[in-house]
Every structure is written in C-alpha cells, then in structure tokens.
Amino acid sequence: MNTTECTAAQYIVGYVNECLICIKISVLNNFFLLLSIVSPLSVCFLFKGKSNEFRANWSYARSWCREQGGDLAVIDNQYENGKELHYPTWIGLSDLVEENQYAWSDGVSPVLYTNWNENEPNNAGGTNEGCVSMHASPVFHGTWNDTKCDQAKPYICKITFGTSHTD
Ligand SMILES: [Ca+2]
Ligand SMILES: [Ca+2]
C-alpha cells in the first residue's frame, strides 16, 4: 500500500517508519520556501512484523502504532483491505470494550466495512476471542478472524496525514 513516488511538484525527503514523506517547495524571490511536508497519500499503512521482525500481541501493537502517530489499522473498504500478507496480521478491530460490539481501536472511527471469514467472529472453542487478525493463507487471504489477543503477530498501523496534506 505504501506509495513509492512523490509527485512531480514534490521532492522525496525520505521515509518515516517506512512511510514515504515528500516536501513541496516553491521559489519565491530567489529563496526556496518550504511550503509543507506532505505524504503522497493522505493515509499511510505501516507494516510491522514481516519476515523475522518483532511481532507483538494486539495491545502492544496498538501502543506501538500510537507511538508512531497513528493507531492500529482501520480498514474502511476493500481497497484498504487488499494487502499482501504472509502471516496472519493484526488490524485495529476488537470487541474488548463490549463483547460482540466490534469497534476500531482509535475509539472514533465507525465500522464502515468488514470482511469476516465464513462463520466469524466465532469466539472459537467457547473462548473469548477479542481481537481481529487478517488471514494470510491463499484460500482465506484477507478475510478476518476474531482470535486471542495475546498471540504475537505482525501488525498494520494506519497513520493519517490529513492536516499537512495541502495539495
Ligand atoms: Ca469476542
Ligand atoms: Ca475466530
């Protein structure tokens, strides 16, 4: 999901936690004037825990995403859900606040889209599964499953650049 280019009017300044950051510069009276720092996308999805990187339980993953200025990923549509996964991966949905009332971890985003696998969420085995991961297997790829929050998994953060995106 990460974009790899800045637009022609922008210049790459580098990556912040794997999210590409561009700056937009204009020339004014022979001085370069920095107008803004922009991400090419208004949101950036940041994967952690791919390959042999550190993986985390759902609560730690949420804390880490918040430290980066975002939260665990809110998935609002099929496009945002279309990520290439190699291992089941945490997203920001849980029913930790109220059983069977699934909500995003940022506490404000409405649940606009879900992609539950068949028969999910199911609190499998009569246990209270409270956190949602996306399946990575070819057959069920990208579908959602409620599962145990204390499992160590890769995770996806979503960082929004809404206030600095001035194009
Ligand atoms: Ca549950
Ligand atoms: Ca389940």
TrEMBL record:
InterPro entries: C-type_lectin-like (IPR001304), C-type_lectin-like/link_sf (IPR016186), C-type_lectin/snaclec_domain (IPR050111), C-type_lectin_CS (IPR018378), CTDL_fold (IPR016187). The keyword NAD does not apply. The chain crosses the membrane at residues 27-47. It holds the Pfam family Lectin_C. The keyword Cell inner membrane does not apply. CDD domains: CLECT. This is C-type lectin domain-containing protein.
